[in-house]
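Hello Y.,

Per our agreement to keep a running log of every chain we model this quarter, I'm adding this entry. I've kept the format consistent with earlier entries: sequence first, then predicted structure.
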Amino acid sequence: MQLKLTRPLWGIIKDVHWQARTGFDYRADIDKYHKQEYWSIPDNKRPEGDCEDFALWCSQNLIKKGIAWQHQAVAYCQTETGTGHLVLMINTDRGVYVLDNRQDSVMGYADLASTYHFIAQSQWGKSMDQAWVRIEDKITPV
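Predicted structure for the entry above:
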């Protein structure tokens, strides 16, 4: 399901990413929860966590600002160093855009696909906790 990307909606997406990038404190799950992996949505006072917490916080805040979860998916990828990483994707009529705690701005999928190896994603239009799909067959590059 694609979001019709208007100038106001693009502003909301960029604003949520900027708020997260400037207000989010990186903290590994092992340090925060004493577990290798733990997914949670940080609170809005001073959010902290790792890449999946960043993605979930962005998703929650986009929903609060009117961008439905059906237009969102989380994707697992490997960075240029081979490290596992999670990002939030927004499916629009102008392509797929990525909100990533490692990037200063919202990026087009194609821009990151040359650096990251995308492996799997939650399904568009379905809850993020349902079965994921291999990404090579499901992404519409920007």
